[in-house]
Write a structure and sequence with these properties.
eight-stranded mixed β-sheet; globular; Rossmann fold; five-stranded parallel β-sheet
Length: about 425
Amino acid sequence: MAEHEDKIRVIIADDVAETREILEKALYFERDITVVAKAANGREAVQLCKQHQPDVVLMDINMPELDGIAATEAIVAQVPGTQVIIMSVQSEQEYLRRAMLAGAREYLIKPPDTDELVRSIRHVYKLRGQVPRAVIGGAIEGPDGRSDQGKVVAVFSPKGGVGCTVVAANLAVALKQITSKRVALVDGNLVFGDIGVAMNIVANKTIVDLASRVHDLDAQLINDVTVPHNSQVRVLLAPPDSQSGEAITPDQLRAVLEGLRQQFDYIVVDTQSAYDDRTLTILDVADRVIVLLTLELTTIKNVKQFIELAGPLGYPDDKLMLVLNKADSRLGIRAESIEGQMRHKVAAQIGNAPYDVTLALNQGVPLVIDRRNHPVARDLLALAALTASALTPVESAATPAAKAKPATPAESKGLFGRLLAKR
């Protein structure tokens, strides 16, 4: 983090006095952070924010008089520029979803360790210059109700079989449900795509029809090629055969995704578990990469390697969202140990219900539609809320130099060619 002349001013809001003291002591030795006030309930937190105009509030969800969700809504509306970090226990996924929609910038699982706490405070502090979101009827809106360009969310894992297609399909539908924005779902696995199966869609028009006409992309063409789903998500299917998929170039794929940005608020892309030029192009274009992993040592190893490669590829840390899928404490590996190995926070967890998830996949009905109250569906809705909250309608606080540099045609040499070119 760049040096600041002024300290980051923090208010701690928690109804447990011991927790307030622990958090204050954890921040005491940080030279760029100072605690300016502590609140015992949400109502007091709102009042203290008006008085002190803090940069960041650490907000517990469950408090008397005014809970953390209502307090967050009030602070976002009445104290512009103050960023809220929600603190919650891991099982409160539905509360978490509502809190993110209320305007919280980030969440922490209680009790957070000091490094995670400080990192989160500094991260949301960087976002303080962004225009606050307004929450209208449960939908996250920009100042004019829409953004100039849509946000691309890639669902990726370097290891196959972790559930990228299921997560991508459910994430797209969940984003539509909680934001009421325009959402597209793209099958970016151009050789063995399964989005059509997951959404129970069969159509003659696919991404090939857009890739072959990238110079003619407009709203009418995109509308003609994308397939409407009963969830109101529009779906861009994979090619009908592997040969057609192999013929699509990285430049064509980039042009298609940029064209979709003009017509949709969110574009969710399912990807192939590979480091080929087309997959790397999707990751380059993406505003957020949801990196999916499961509690298997082989998957953990591959994901760790990808995270280590993200820096050389030019991806800033906040571009990656590490998500644990099929989470199950009985498998002998804890999420905390994964974070320690990868030095990257697990942003969200999705429960393990193999029978129900497989049944939904076989029926072609995303779980968030057919069984919205299922624990896994609630986890997916929470992930969608977290993703929507992170992808605000304005530019990221990262400087242009920190953003990934798009690969030019000459640079498209696959993963190792690209890494060698950066040396």
